[in-house]
Amino acid sequence: MYRNDSYPLEIMKTGLLFLANAKLRPNTFQTHEDPFRALLVYCITEIKTDLWLPLNRNYDVLGLSKDDLSDYKSDKYNHMLIQTKDINFDLLWDNTTNLQKGKMFFLISDFTFPRCYYGRKSKEDEKNRIRYETIVKHSFFNEKSGKDFEWAWGYKRSYGYGEDYKENLKRFKPHA
After folding, report:
1. pLDDT tens readout for residues 32-85
2. In whole angstroms, what separates CA 12 from the centre of its chain?
């Protein structure tokens, strides 16, 4: 077999390679039509106990780009599931406090979504790309980044997410 990793991890690698190397012209695509958004993992959601499905920014199964959401619990996506034991949650944002059903962890927020492959690359774009790449590699590829949750998400405190940030910190510091 030519693959070294599971299928969802191979798609994540493809997304990272694209971010690092692509040089698309500005306005090539409208953001909602961007075909590469499908390859960038935005969040993971627990589908079955200890089995997580990676989703792209359109909340569709990673790698898919369609107009409607997939049935996450369909057996046809079993090859996309990642076991809890294969995920390091230390740099992931727990969004469960805002949801009524299910568990969901995020790798990026909307205002830090890596878009640096369009046109000019600002320092902020590059910073977001590095943050995203670090979170993906740390969380799914077992790369020790030396970064902590504060490094990955501390900026959210000043964007109106202070209470959610404190809730997330409780995972690491029970009395935070």
Report:
1. 566 677 889 999 999 999 999 999 988 899 998 776 678 888 899 999 999 999
2. 9
Q: Is 99 left (phi over 0), alpha (psi -120 to 50) or beta?
A: beta
Residue 38 main-chain phi, psi, to 5 deg: -65, -25
Provide the residue ranges of all domains of the chain, joining segments of one domain with +. Answer: 7-169
pTM: 0.86
